[in-house]
């Protein structure tokens, strides 16, 4: 083990700080404290930018309140800079992906095959602090919260050991960072949560990174028809790359999209995956499903709004499910997904449409909102 | 039989218009046409759906044609069969079915659904396959509720809507397998796929709910919490396997909160057997986020179900069940066998026995919560 000169010391580095909701991120000098017991400090090499990062900053009416100031970012990859006492699973120099969903391996949830929602530190990380109730990032003498206990929009961050997993040393960090959230979520929604079957007909609503990953998951599962739905027809070409067989733009039809899909499929799809995070689209996705056992998986993240359904749609045989991080048991699954990428079972490069530096991070948000990007990777 | 091929005059309980009591009338039942079976009804249960169709317009089916002979939970004996019927013959004991099973359509061939699509639209309009009914009264066509009409001494149903059962089956009890009991029991074992050792909550302790309790017990659930606003039902729920009881009226907190506290986070399976969207929501919210499953069983077209999206995103599953998910023609005879071998209870559901001309009393008993199942003995 090679000791780094920063080990055990406060690191001064750059981070993109959200001082208050509704304002652009500010590039600041921050101080990152050394890891405490069972924590890992990571030098972040690359980070994707997710719609939910934008939503917590700009769409706060739809999200539960989060404490500010805050360093966002939850889709990153990096190298272990140092570990705190008691950490045995990762070491200095290891390539790792921080995880917004932990896997302690011991709690009731981790022991259950039915859920991936480890309860360890859940309440703390949702409040932007680590297990002891504080964060490791300060700026101008003020504690800065860590988004879901992670904060990948910083050159260095500290996460609980159960929120990080070691990955293959050959993994290109500027691509596998996407497995920290969007790609794993969409892909897992199809193969784990929906349990898409070979020969089935699927519809994926929304062709951002999550939706394209869901398309990829449907293809991997052997679906015969994968209908990609988006109001931006520019996305259909890349949809094809990931496996979509058909495309529908709701704006091209006077009938509701669910009606269009039911007609296209003679009664409804076997699986519908909603990857937008809009309650009206969720309802449409349910109604687009076949009553003969159709399954709708809601994937797009939303916190406050309520979904409304006609009871008969469920009584007559449809199933409604949701997914969080694609249903993966994070610590053990992400390294395998990295392997799947290295062995070309899953695509990652094709998601990356832009590369920017940390000080250009607000441009990444603009690219998301204008629909011009799929994933922008921030290279630290 | 002397009636074969002829119109039969008999008694039936006719609903002339919505909101009015049933009227015992002399009706004429035409002989069965091709692929139809005429049945002498021996006994019929009474379901909440029958009452709802009559008294709560808009809550069950669209459209609601009148006049109609209601009843969809019956058992009887084949009186005659029309051309092409090969699966049963005169004298066979049978149960008419709210869900058909033609065995050939895409739905019947799929393991994922029991909703045979054959004749669906016609039966939902209360007609047989050719778009007419076989019952007339005072020279007027009378519709057949879901193409069945068990509130008549004789009825005619499509052959795919009837199944032959064991000759020893007591018709005044196995009639309940035509709807309520099969629905609740199947909701637990087929739709919910309740697992051994699990914790379940059943909302509503009518026949469907009690059958769901029985299904949870059969599946090996460890805890079965029965929920009803009428505490008088807790005793009979114990008979069917409930281990605990909760009356929402005894708590100031919402019932889902009570259940989450009772179970340290939520139940593994919740079965809503009331048919109320408020209760459906409570049932979802009572489920554990660690893979909890809520099965909607109670039938309603009324209102909209609203859910917190995050509840679903964080891992709950919402399903619905129609006739318990059973492939009707092949499953109901097996359920009869299970009753005959003591695996499932039926007698315990029957709280009252009345005659056809007392049928309005049966509705009163149901609505006042005094009965679980009243059997009309023809």
UniProtKB/TrEMBL annotation, chain A:
Biological processes, Gene Ontology terms: formaldehyde catabolic process
Entry keyword set: Metal-binding, NAD, Oxidoreductase, Zinc
Superkingdom field: Eukaryota
Single annotated GO MF: S-(hydroxymethyl)glutathione dehydrogenase [NAD(P)+] activity
A UniProt-annotated Pfam family: ADH_N
Xref: InterPro entries: ADH-like_C (IPR013149), ADH-like_N (IPR013154), ADH_Zn_CS (IPR002328), ER (IPR020843), GroES-like_sf (IPR011032), NAD(P)-bd_dom_sf (IPR036291)
GO CC annotations on file: cytosol
Known cofactor(s): Zn(2+)
Family assignment from sequence similarity: Belongs to the zinc-containing alcohol dehydrogenase family. Class-V subfamily.
Purpose of the protein: Alcohol dehydrogenase. Catalyzes the NAD-dependent oxidation of primary alcohols to the corresponding aldehydes. Oxidizes secondary alcohols to the corresponding ketones.
Protein name, UniProt field: Alcohol dehydrogenase 6
Species the sequence originates in: Danio rerio
Gene from which this protein is expressed: adh5l
UniProtKB/TrEMBL annotation, chain B:
Ranges that cross the membrane: none
Gene3D superfamilies noted in UniProt: Medium-chain alcohol dehydrogenases, catalytic domain (3.90.180.10), NAD(P)-binding Rossmann-like Domain (3.40.50.720)
Domain Enoyl reductase (ER): 19-376
InterPro entries recorded: ADH-like_C, ADH-like_N, ADH_Zn_CS, ER, GroES-like_sf, NAD(P)-bd_dom_sf
GO molecular function, one term: alcohol dehydrogenase (NAD+) activity
Alphabetical list of Pfam families matching this protein: ADH_N, ADH_zinc_N
Cofactors required: Zn(2+)
PROSITE patterns named in the record: ADH_ZINC
Keywords assigned by UniProt, alphabetized: Metal-binding, NAD, Oxidoreductase, Zinc
Function comment: Alcohol dehydrogenase. Catalyzes the NAD-dependent oxidation of primary alcohols to the corresponding aldehydes. Oxidizes secondary alcohols to the corresponding ketones.
Similarity comment: Belongs to the zinc-containing alcohol dehydrogenase family. Class-V subfamily.
Record-linked PANTHER family: ALCOHOL DEHYDROGENASE, S-(HYDROXYMETHYL)GLUTATHIONE DEHYDROGENASE
Protein name: Alcohol dehydrogenase 6
The species this protein was found in: Danio rerio
Taxonomic lineage from the root: Eukaryota, Metazoa, Chordata, Craniata, Vertebrata
């Amino acid at each position: 083990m090679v000791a780094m000169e920063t080990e055990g010391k406060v690191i001064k580095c750059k981070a993109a700080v959200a001082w208050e909701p509704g304002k652009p991120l500010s590039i600041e000098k921050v101080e990152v404290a050394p890891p405490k017991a069972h924590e890992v400090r990571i030098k972040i090499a690359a980070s994707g930018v997710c719609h939910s990062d934008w939503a917590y900053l700009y769409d706060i009416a739809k999200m539960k309140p989060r404490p500010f100031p805050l360093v966002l970012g939850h889709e990153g990859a990096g190298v272990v800079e140092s570990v705190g006492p008691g950490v045995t699973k990762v070491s200095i120099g290891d390539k790792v992906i921080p995880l917004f969903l932990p896997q302690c391996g011991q709690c009731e949830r981790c022991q259950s095959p039915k859920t991936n929602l480890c309860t360890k530190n859940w309440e703390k990380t949702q409040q932007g602090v680590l297990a002891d109730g504080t964060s490791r990032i300060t700026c101008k003498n003020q504690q800065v919260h860590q988004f879901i206990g992670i904060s990948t929009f910083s050159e260095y961050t500290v996460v609980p050991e159960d929120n990080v997993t070691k990955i293959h040393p050959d993994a290109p960090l500027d691509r596998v960072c996407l497995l920290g959230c969007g790609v794993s979520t969409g892909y897992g929604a199809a193969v784990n949560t929906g349990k898409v079957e070979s020969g089935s007909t699927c519809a994926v609503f929304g062709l951002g990174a999550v939706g394209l990953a869901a398309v990829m998951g449907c293809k991997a599962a052997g679906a015969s028809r994968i209908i990609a739905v988006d109001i931006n027809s520019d996305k259909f070409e890349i949809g094809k790359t990931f496996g979509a067989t058909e495309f529908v733009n709701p704006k091209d039809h006077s009938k509701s999209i669910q009606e269009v899909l039911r007609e296209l499929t003679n009664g409804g799809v076997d699986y519908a995956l909603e990857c937008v995070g809009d309650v009206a689209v969720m309802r449409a996705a349910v109604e687009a499903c076949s009553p003969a056992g159709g399954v709708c998986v809601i994937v797009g993240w939303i916190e406050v709004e309520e979904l409304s359904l006609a009871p008969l749609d469920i009584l007559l045989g449809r199933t409604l499910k949701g997914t969080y991080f694609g249903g993966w048991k994070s610590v053990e699954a992400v390294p395998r997904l990295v392997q799947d990428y290295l062995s070309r079972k899953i695509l990652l490069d094709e998601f990356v449409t832009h590369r920017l530096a940390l000080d250009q991070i607000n441009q990444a948000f603009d690219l998301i909102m204008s629909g011009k990007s799929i994933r922008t990777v921030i290279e630290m």
